[in-house]
Automatic annotation (TrEMBL):
EC number: 3.5.2.2
Keywords from the named record: Hydrolase, Metal-binding
Name of the protein in its database record: Dihydropyrimidinase
Similarity section: Belongs to the metallo-dependent hydrolases superfamily. Hydantoinase/dihydropyrimidinase family.
Any Pfam family matching the protein: Amidohydro_1
Cofactor(s) demanded: Zn(2+)
GO molecular function: dihydropyrimidinase activity
Record gene name: hydA
Top-rank taxon, per record: Bacteria
Amino acid sequence: MSTLIRGGTVVTSEMTYRADVYCEDGLIKAIGKDLEVPSGAEVVDAGGQYVMPGGIDPHTHMQLPFMGTVASEDFETGTAAAAAGGTTQIIDFVIPDPEEPLMEAYQKWRGWAEKSVADYSFHVAVTWWDDTVHRDMGILAEQEGINSFKHFMAYKNAIMVSDEMMIASFSRCRELGAMATVHAENGEMVYHLQQEMLKKGITGPEGHPQSRPPEVEGEAANRAIRTAQVLQTPIYVVHVSCKESLEAITRARQEGQRVFGECLAGHLLIDDSVYYNDDFEFAAAHVMSPPFRPKDHQRALWRGLQSGNLQTTATDHCCFCAPQKAAGRDDFTLIPNGTSGVEDRMSVLWHHGVNTGKLTINEFVKITSTNAAQIFNIHPRKGSITIGADADIVVWDPEKTRTISAKTHFQNVDFNIFENMETRGNPSHTISQGNVVFKDGQLNVVKGAGRYIKRPTFNTHFAALEKRRAETAPRKVNRAAQAAE
Ligand code: URP
Ligand code: ZN
Ligand code: ZN
Ligand code: ZN
């Protein structure tokens, strides 16, 4: 199977140039002007279009068992919807229950993901701690291609970690050359404020943002970042939603710390007014954590992407349909947290980022693909258009429009947070492992064609940190000689 993408403009994180791209056996085999069409090759006409690395969504939750239910989007439908939007790889999460052995949870998720139609990797969450967790993190990192571990600082009485566990796990991450990642919200504060809301009779979805104010996120982000600083390990903050946590990241980066921040398409574009809507179903459909924020936070997040203080964009794609959200009709704390977006991220970022001049086309590639590939150490195999890289490519038509709607999207959920948004700039073709899996608005995917992508430990930041550590090693004062005098 071979594919020639002809007549397009290649856009990478660094360069923009006219070239054809030839893919064979799942890899990019040639890049150049006027390549010959090999016999039997499928030809994709990319005239007037951009040829970019396929999107990487570093934060999804397909078929996640969460808050008493299971996310409606599974690995097959979710990776297919991703492909329809130009995203060719997801990094999902293994989330063990407290006390559940990490290896068991990992094998369970690997099994669920086998039906994926496009490539995938996993972060593994550390939700409890003992010697077996310490051991299993080593097996996962050294044998199973896991190079990032997630810590939920929220969700008290469920998957929340204590500071003690976080310190133990961050230290282990450093030993293993794995990225520590955090969901930064002070779970004790959230719990306290939730009880306050319920006592006041605020039981509807408007209680959700009011019990998770930005300060609660900023405090946790700062705590996690300072903890990582003291332990001298890199850290990645997922779904940065507000000025307070962005400020913590920016400050630390200005001090030279290796801190990375992700933001979600939803947090860039949707504000907290949705929670005050009269319609319970509409408001509940937006319940996700951290919540959508007042508009000034969105402006700050865009500036975070522009300045490079935020490096990646994701969706936290975690779908629950109206009957599932209804579990919290009388108590907002029981509404399953999560919203969709894996299909829409690239087009809404292009429309609101590139079309408005906030982002260049190269910056678009960085924040939708290359930076995630570099941080999670799968670059240049992923996130690049280079000879030998995986042929995961999106052919992007900057003039193609789409009106986003739950009625027409591929995502397996009955609601779309971007409903009725018209985007200009959409994929005309998505190519996964060299195969055209989406064209003319139609998917042509194969269940199980997606592969588990192992990610090596010790990305480039660890070598630099190792040298810093040697320079700043703890020192002892030897007073024995003095005493003998
Ligand atoms: O509300 C959310 N984000 N649900 C998924 C779990 C998480 O916190 O990432
Ligand atoms: Zn250890
Ligand atoms: Zn989270
Ligand atoms: Zn998440």
